[in-house]
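so im writing up the methods section and need the AGAP004500-PA record in one place, dumping it here so i stop losing it
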Amino acid sequence: MEGMRFCYGSAVRWRGTMRILASVLLVVVAVLDKAATQKPEDGPYRGKYIGKFNSYHHQASGDVYAVDEYTFLLTGFNYDGNGIDTFFWSGASNRPGPQGFIVPDEYGKTNILERYFNKDFTLRLPDNKKITEVKWLAVYDLNSQNNFADVYIPEDFEPPVPQKAGSLTAIAGGPMVSSDTIDILDSKTIRITDFSYDGKAGGQGAVHFWVGVGPSPSSKGSKVPDEMGYLDPIRAYDRETITLELPGDMTIFDIDWFSVYDVEARRDYGSILISDDLNVPPSLVRVTPHTESLPNCRQLHKDYRVSWEVFGPQITIQLAGNVQQDEYMSFGLSGSDSRSQMLGADVVVAFIDGHRGYAVDYNITSLAPCVQVLGQNKGVCRDDVVGGLDSYQLHTYSRENDINTITFRRTLISSDSGDKEFLLDRPMYVIWAMGRLDSNNEPTYHDVYPKRNVQIHFNTSEPVNDCFSFTSREANLKDVWERQQIFDRSVRAFTATLGPAGGKRGYQGITGHVSNGLAWYINGFLVPELWLRRGLTYSFLVRGGNNPHSPEFYHPLVITDEPHGGYDRLSDARQSEIRVLAGVEFTRRGRPKPIAAGPLCLARHPEGQDRRLDDNFATFKKFNRTLKWTCDSGDPAVLEITPNTSWPDVVYYNSFTHANMGWKIHIVDSYSQSARSHASAYSSFNHSIRLLLIASSFVVWTWALK
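--- predicted struct ---
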């Protein structure tokens, strides 16, 4: 009996030991399983982790993520390329086999796979198939029906999708703030539907889009650039849908709340909380870190920053901007001591032309390109053109990752009486802008500039730095406004007035030229193409301004065989190469004299309308309805022309004083069907080119992962 008790007790202890051992093994298996499937912690957010490739042959390996419902991301992928008929392969069977379909490679091709070494790229399932409809992704050889590597989609897998995050409602005692649904589109992008803000915050009105950590909005947060990338206090909105991008390398996982916040009053006017572990797609935004060599840095726009250091009697300034190769960056001291003002400002214009950098000193005496007015240069003119000195000394320049960085120096008190002094005992109002250069590397009307006052203290006791990494995403090209054509044999008179150029969808998009801010409106249309018949007489009723003392609003009409205009600004040698067909007489000394300068009739934006929003108008017709016209009294100047056989088939109407304000005149022998077909074909060709540009601008997901 005692022996039986001993055996029974030993058996009980043995079974207990085995249970403990089994539990330990289960824990070990669970840990190993979790280690095999958990998301790697290093690097940026890449989507929802699926797992590692199970590697069987040909060194196929890597990690696999779900980017969205349709797209895989492969990171660190390797394959020796020695398979005979090998493809990315997927299907809904229990394991990889002949029943499946080819998944196009990162270029959308179904070619046999070549060698990969530690490569990151995306694969999109064909025919709008979803990741939840397949059970595995494999590297599979159809010839030998061998599986080189595979990864299985977990059951009940939920791929990343945009997530809803509530809506904004006004807080009692604050300005009106409201919205419909707020969507977290990806790890860096927030879309607010039907957003409204009445712009009536009290005090300084320093209201920003604001994010941070903690249980509720507070002053310890960060600005979010508005939908155009500006960091100024936000404007008024009326049921607008806007898309915001978190600054620098910040993601939605770094914040706990989003707010419309008054920084001066430290008040939240409407906010939402951000849930933890949102299952959203990774962002396509490319983040480019940029290190400043100077101790102070101010982020002026998501794509532009200024850094500086004062040492002794000199100030060193560095401008860095995410700009195109034909664009400039400008920065300088305001023309007013009480606000940021372009008129009277002292600025530097910095750019890189090929392999050479420039930092050129400019003086702004009028809001127009530099022109001669009664023998004097006025407008945005280089200092050395108006009798001053180029006071800036170029130090270094570089262009890397589409970012221009230009460093230069100047004495705080310049020897040029036309330059302003950098004061160190108080903040100073500054101005800045970015835009395109013309063919002479002169700045044209800026595309990006602030609407609010900007102040900088150049000599603080402690360094200041609010700069963040540059970001860029694929270009979102908007359709150009319709190219108008006046093709009517009964029209013999054209009224020429002036109006806004209309942004990138307007003059720039229609002609492909840079703009100075104004353009010709012919019979109410923005720079239409005209079709005139040889032998017939036509009249242009010109209302472009007849005051030669005005550098901004003096625009006699001229017709030449050269597309840009601004004949009066050209050198004698360049003028001699251009054929003037109408609008200019020459004096006995051979100097050009305009003859078609009529009283000014000008369309303007209504008061309070932001010119930077011109591209938000879907059509020119909608844009044109918002403009307000003012016309000086007096009869228009009449320019009569009769095209003859010596005229080229294409000529151009433009301004005598400023470049890039007009467009084409087609000279035909008859208003025949062939000419009309040519017009239609020309329009179709331009439409095709636009579609081609839009298609070519589409960047694959791989670009964002490099």
